Amino acid sequence: MSVLPSEPVPGFDDLSLDWLRARRSVKWHRPGPRVLPAWVADMDFPTPPVVVAALREAVDRRDLGYPDWPDGSPLRRAFARRMMDRYAWAAPSDRVREQTDLIQCLQLVLHLATGAGDAVAIQTPNYPPFLATLATMNRRAVPIPMRDCADGWCMDPAALDTAVAESGCKALVLVNPHNPTGRVLTRAELEEIAAIARRHDLLVISDEIHAELAHEPHRHIPFASLSPDAAGRTVTLTSATKAFNLAATRCAVTHYGPDRLLALRDAQPPDLYGAVSPLGVIATEAAWREGDAWQRDLLTVLDRNRRRVHQVVSTELPRLRHHLPEATYLAWFDARPLGLGESPVERVLKEGDVLLVGGSPFGPDADGFLRLNFATSHAVLEDILAGLVRALRPGPSQ
């Protein structure tokens, strides 16, 4: 089944299994020595050299004391520059606040802007920690199902409008680009959502952490950039961690559109929600300032890999429903047509020695679905796909 890439990409296709299995992070450490992990959303690729150099320089100069940031970290200006350079969005830097990760960003905004029992709309399927956050914080999740359309996954604005009206939602958690389906919402779709938010006075909490992983010809559009009204009701959450593989640096940003919410945030005790690490700020600045060449190579590899996944699934497992993702390094499969009679995650692990995720943690009606992380080398991806096919290929009687 293996088809060699026409041009292996140095630094991305020369990963050894020994090096990967020696990692102490959860993706490769937890599954054990026999299993190939394609579950948690970490990439297998080494940290970008420009980030390593920036961190090493800070450590070599023994500069690990308290930072001198009287007006907030340099991330505030770095975020504003990145948004202007990438998306022509003039995001005021004085409305940016630092947090340790995106989940904390979401939890803080929900804590400040909503109360126990309040309804919050959210696309489903969705990133499991977001759904778990709503449950743990006693916010009533109002699922807005993504529809499986002929040419990809679709968000249904009419369903959103009806659900918000009937449930009295205070907020919408909008994940765009979407995890796990990989959809990139178009300007027309975003404008429909913005009209609904304006009509129902919704706070929009826009998770845009996968923005820089959109594949050609798709383009990410920051929700807050749509109009002054959208800007004034949107809280944007993002980080360099997904697009540059920096999860361990624990660094994210929140851009606050609503004046009242920003004032409420700044009225909190300054260290109540923790403080971002200076090393995380250094890593993020280096990635955003000097990492574009590395990221171009990354996107070349991810584009090739997403097409390879789609090719193998379409030819070897034609009943496994799948759309070519428009962004991210995640593939979302509907295994229900296979009629397995058991969890497809368990089947793939047992018969294919490959660890994926899926099912109910992604929301209602997600049983029978699988998510596969294809951010790895060509050789490792081929082994993952071989395990997937081995586990899910129909037998003679099927």
Automatic annotation (TrEMBL):
EC numbers on record: 4.4.1.13
InterPro entries: Aminotransferase_I/II_large, Class-II_PLP-Dep_Aminotrans, PyrdxlP-dep_Trfase, PyrdxlP-dep_Trfase_major, PyrdxlP-dep_Trfase_small
CDD domains per record: AAT_like
Signal peptide positions (record): none
GO molecular function per UniProt: cysteine-S-conjugate beta-lyase activity; pyridoxal phosphate binding; transaminase activity
Keyword Lyase among record annotations: yes
Enzyme class per UniProt: lyase
Protein name: cysteine-S-conjugate beta-lyase
Natural source organism: Streptomyces violaceusniger
Cofactor annotation: pyridoxal 5'-phosphate
Keyword annotations of the record: Aminotransferase, Lyase, Pyridoxal phosphate, Transferase
Family matches, as Gene3D superfamilies: Aspartate Aminotransferase, domain 1, Type I PLP-dependent aspartate aminotransferase-like (Major domain)
Stretches assigned to the Aminotransferase class I/classII large domain: 42-385
Family as reported in the entry's similarity comment: Belongs to the class-II pyridoxal-phosphate-dependent aminotransferase family. MalY/PatB cystathionine beta-lyase subfamily.
Membrane-crossing segments per the record: none
